[in-house]
Amino acid sequence: MIAQHIYSSLIEVDPTYADSLKIGYNKFINSIDSLDSMMANAVKRHNIKSVMVFHPILSYLARDYGFNQIAIESEGKEPSPKMMKTNIDVAKTNGIKIIFVQQEFDTERATIIARQIGASVVKLDPLGYNWNNSIRYIVSQFEQTNNINQHDKPTN
How many angstroms separate the CA atoms of 87 and 51, rounded? Predict the structure, then answer.
């Protein structure tokens, strides 16, 4: 919607560039559609039901692609030892194989949980300038870690 509004506004300001703007707009929309398909396919292919994050950074992706985001920290506070134990239990129950942490956050607590559940800690830059590469990186991590929730595996 934002791209559509920008596109329409630019054409309104200077219609002489309408053809060039349309080409750029369509290229951008196709890129977004491609990322959307990549994410949707990865979530479906790997049966991703839950991901663990240090800070709830994937809220929109979780909502849009139908997975649960389990945050280690609560209300912006470091988890207590009791909460760490709860996080470990929740991660085990949900078959978590990867824990996403923003680059600017300390990974110590995520690493402790990861060791206890046999998961990987992966740093993300969700606020980075190149947001499309960030999405591709998340998809690649789903692919590499095969983050299938064990309790949701289909049985034959």
Answer: 12
